[in-house]
Known about the structure:
2 copies of one chain form a homodimer. Chain A is of the alpha/beta class. The first copy, chain A, contains 22 helices and 14 strands. In chain A, the strands form 4 sheets. Chain A has a 7-stranded mixed β-sheet, sandwiched between helices. The first copy, chain A, has a 3-stranded antiparallel β-sheet with strand order 10-14-13. In chain A, strand 3 (244-250), helix 12 and strand 4 form a beta-alpha-beta unit. In chain A, helix 21 crosses helix 22 (538-559). Chains A, B: Homodimer. Chains A, B: It comes from Amphilophus citrinellus (Midas cichlid).
Amino acid sequence: MSATRMQMLSSRSVRLLSRGRNEMLAGRSGAQRPGGDPRTRSLTCPPLSSSSSPGRALSSLSATRRGLPKEKMSENGIMSRAKVLTIDTMNPTVKKVEYAVRGPIVQRAVELERELSEGMKKPFAEVIRANIGDAHAMGQQPITFFRQVLALCSYPELLSDSTFPEDTKSRACRILQSCGGNSMGSYSASQGIDSVRQDVASYIVRRDGGVPCDPNNIYLTTGASDGIMTMLKLLVCGEGTTRTGVMIPIPQYPLYSAALAELGAVQINYFLNEEKCWSLDITELQRAVNEARQHCNPRALCIINPGNPTGQVQSRQCIEDVIRFAAKERLFLMADEVYQDNVYAEGCQFHSFKKVLFEMEPEYAETVELASFHSTSKCYMGECGFRGGYMEIINMDDEVKDQLTKLLSVRLCPPVPGQALMDLVVNPPQPGEPSYDTFIKERTATLSALAEKAKLTEQVLNTVQGISCNPVQGAMYSFPRITIPEKAIKEATEKGQQPDMFYCMKMLEETGICLVPGSGFGQKDGTYHFRMTILPPTDKLKILLNKVKEFHQRFIQQYS
Amino acid sequence: MSATRMQMLSSRSVRLLSRGRNEMLAGRSGAQRPGGDPRTRSLTCPPLSSSSSPGRALSSLSATRRGLPKEKMSENGIMSRAKVLTIDTMNPTVKKVEYAVRGPIVQRAVELERELSEGMKKPFAEVIRANIGDAHAMGQQPITFFRQVLALCSYPELLSDSTFPEDTKSRACRILQSCGGNSMGSYSASQGIDSVRQDVASYIVRRDGGVPCDPNNIYLTTGASDGIMTMLKLLVCGEGTTRTGVMIPIPQYPLYSAALAELGAVQINYFLNEEKCWSLDITELQRAVNEARQHCNPRALCIINPGNPTGQVQSRQCIEDVIRFAAKERLFLMADEVYQDNVYAEGCQFHSFKKVLFEMEPEYAETVELASFHSTSKCYMGECGFRGGYMEIINMDDEVKDQLTKLLSVRLCPPVPGQALMDLVVNPPQPGEPSYDTFIKERTATLSALAEKAKLTEQVLNTVQGISCNPVQGAMYSFPRITIPEKAIKEATEKGQQPDMFYCMKMLEETGICLVPGSGFGQKDGTYHFRMTILPPTDKLKILLNKVKEFHQRFIQQYS
Lengths: 560, 560
C-alpha cells in the first residue's frame, strides 16, 4: 500500500517528503549502523593515475550544503544548468505510452488511503482496489502445495523436515536438480529451465487432448507481459506506410497499446461486439485490416481469450474463423490465454488457439504462425508477484527462433522462482499423491467462488437503471456499459476529463471504490464503461456492488 | 545444464530431437494423465455467433497428419506459403544485437556436454563453464540467512517453526507486511516495495558514510540489466547526426552494446588503458566524445566499476575527474556498480559515484545526473536466478521521473522474491542478532576465497609466456592479453573467425574449458584477450589454470 503511496505522490510533495526522510536516514545510519563492510573500510587507496588535471581538495562547504533545500541552492544559480534529460529531450515514444490500470485514478486512490491513514474525514472507511487483477492483495490465499515447494527450493535444508509431504519434496528435488549447482540462485538457460519447459509441454498436450507439443517451442517469460512485449519487438519494422501494424481488440488490455506506442508500431483497432456479448466478428476484423492497409503494413493479430477487460469466452468456431482470417490476410497470431482456467459461464469452455489450429487442415496447421501466452498471475493461483509465465511458438521460422533466443539471452533468464512456480502450475499434485486432495479443494474453492462472484456482479449491476453488464463468462472483470447524462459529459469536458474518468473519480471520492474508466481500455465513441474486478471476497463484493448501485443512482439524479 | 543444452542445439537437430519428444509426450499424456480440469471438461459449448462463413467440418486427415515430419508435408507444397515473420522481415535492430557471454562458444560447450553424456570420447572428462559470473552454478553456497527468510516469505506457516532464528522471522514479517494481502504473490508498486526502497536508502547512507539518500530515488529492478536497459531507453532520441550516442568502455560488458543496438543508439567507444591496469584516462574520454560529436549527439557516459571484464577498481580521484568531465560535456552518468563488494587488491577500495558526487562542489553535486545500478547477482551472495536489483537516480528531472515510473508500471513490478532478496542484501543481520555470526562467517569466507582466487589467477597466468594478466583488483573475472601467432591468425581468418574466438574454440575442444574471447567485449585492434571467471573452487581453479597454461604453450608451438 504505502509503497504505491510514496511512488504516486506528486513530484512536489515527493521532494518535501523526501527531504525529511533524508535527514532521518542520515541520522539513523550515523547513530545505529556505523559504516558498512569493515574489511573495505580498513583499506586506504592510493589514487590510480589518471591523465587529467590534479584533483582539487574537497569543498567542505559542499558537504554542509547537502542538507539545504534545492530551492535555496537554485537562488545562487547553481540549479540553472539545464538537465541533460528532460521531458523535451527524452525518448518520444516513451512519452506516448499510457497504462490506465495504474493511471491517475490509482494515484488518487493512493492519496486517499494516505489521507485516511492520517485521520482525515471521508465518506468511507477504506479504499477498495477493484482496479487490478491482484488476487492475493484481495485476500485470496496461495495454494499450499505451491508455496511448500517454493519454500523447499529456497531453503533445501527443509527437505529433512518431516512435516512437508513427500510429493512437495520430490517436486522440489526435481526443480533443484535442473538448476546449476542445485540452486535457484543460478542463472537458467535464457529460454528457461529444460525440465520446466518439458512439464509445460506435457501440460499443453493434456490440456489440448493429445495434440503434440514440442518443449523447444516453449519459452519461459517474466510474466506474460514480457513474452508479449518480446514477440511484438520481433515483429516491428518498416517506416511510414510500410510500418508494422498490429491488430488489437477494443476494448483491450492496455499493455498492448502501451507496447505498440513504445515500439512505434501502428495500433489497428478492431471492435468487439458488445451487443453480442463482446463477441469477435470476422467482418469487423476485415474492415479494420482493409482500412489499415492504406497507411501501414498489418502483420499481427492479437486476441485475448478469455477477454480482458470484457470477460467473453470465444467459441471454437470463432477461433477457427480467426485462424482462417489470419492465414488469408497473412497475419502472425498472438493469443493471450492467461485466463484459460477462468471460465465460469454455463455452456462456455476454453479452447486454445493451438489446439484448434492443429485440428484444422494442414494448409493452416502447418503454416499459420502463432504465439500463445500463459502466466502464473491469474487463473486459480493468482501469483502475480513471482512474474512467472511462458509462451508457446508455433510455425515460427527457425532463423527467427534463433534471433528470439539471442534476444532473450541478453536479459540472461526469467526469474527462477517464477519458473519453478510455473512448473508447479503445469505439473500440480496427481491423484494418489499426498497433496492432491488439499490442492483440488483449494483450487475448486477459488474457482467456484470466482464463478459465483462473476454471476453476482452481472446480476446486481443489471438491476441498476443506466448500467448494462454482459455476462462475465470468464477472466476476472466486469466491464459494464454506463449511461452518463449530457450535463455530466459537459462538466467533464470543461474539466478536460473523459466522461467515464469523471464518473470513476467521483465514485472514488464518494465511495472509496477504485475502478478503471473504459476510456483506459478503449471503447466505441459515445459509449462509456468501467472495469471492475470480481476478486473481492463475496461479502465485500456485495457491499461494493450496492455502493456502486447507490452511487450511480445519485449520479444520474444529480446530472439529469 | 541440459536446459542450455537443448536450447543451444542447431535448428536442424532441434527439429529432429523435438519430433521424437512430441510422440513421447502425446503418448504419455494420453496414458497417465487424462485431460486437465474436470470442471471445464464436463461443459459443452454452443458456438457464439460469428458473422463469418459457416465453419467447415474438421479434416480428420489433418489430425492424423500431425505426426508426419514437416519435410514430408513440404513435398505437397503446403509449406510453400511464405512465413509472415522471417529473418528478412523481422525487426532489423534486433538482428544487430550480439551477446558473446552466451554466444557460439557456449553453444559448442553445450554440445560437448551432450556428447560427453552420450559417452563420446573427449580429451577431457567435463566441460568447465568459466564464461559467466554464475557463482552458485560453480558451487558457491547461498547465504543461510537469506534463504531462511525467503522460505518464510514463501510459506509463512513456517513462522511457527522454532528452528528458524528470531531475526529471520522478524525480517520475513516486515517484508510480508509490505506486500498486498501479506503475500509475495501480490503485485508490488511499480517502483518496488516501499519498505525495501527505504532499506536500500539506509544501506546507501551507511555505505557512503552518511551522504543522504532519498527512497523516492530508488527503483527496484529485475536484475541490474533491466535498470540499465530502462535508463538507456529514456535517453534515446533523434535521428542521423542528432541520434543519441552513449559512451561505453572498451572492453565492456556486452549488455551495453546489445542494448544500444536494440535501441538503435550510437555506441561511442572509449578505450581503457591496459598498460595502466585498465585505468580510465580522461584524455581518452575527451578524444572519444570529440570524434563522436561529428556524427551523433553524445548524451550518456557508462562506467563499470569495479570493471567487467577488466577487474580494475577506480580511484576516488578518477571518479571525481569523470564527474567533472560529464558535467563539462553535459553527459548523463550511468554507474554500473554491481561488483561493489568485490574488491580484493591491497590499497584498493570501492568509491560510489554517488558519494563522490555529493562530496563535490554544489555546481556538480546539485546538477550532474547520475543513475547507479546494483544487483543481488554478484558480490558475496551471487543470487543471479532471483533477478533482484535496484537503481538510484540522482538529479533527474521530475517530469522524466514521472515518465520513468509510468514506463515501469506497464511491466507491473519486478519479481517480488527478488525484491525481498534485495532487501536482505541491504539489511543483513546486525551485531547481536542470532544470525549475525553465521552471516559474517559465510560472507567473509566467500569474499576471502574470491580474493585468493583473484591473486592465484593473476599469478599463474603471468607465468605463461605470451599471456599477460593485469591484477584482478575486483569483480569476478580475469581478462588476460594473449599472443596469437601470425600462422594462427591466418588460419582463423580463413575460417572467418576472430583469432581469439579461434583460440578459445580450440581450447574448448582440447581442454573442455569454456572462456569468452575478448572480441566479444571489444579490444584494441591487433590485441587479443579472453575473459575467465575466478569462480571455480580453488582446487578446480588450479587445475583449470594449469590446463590453460599447457594449452597456450601447445598452441604457440603448433603455430610458430
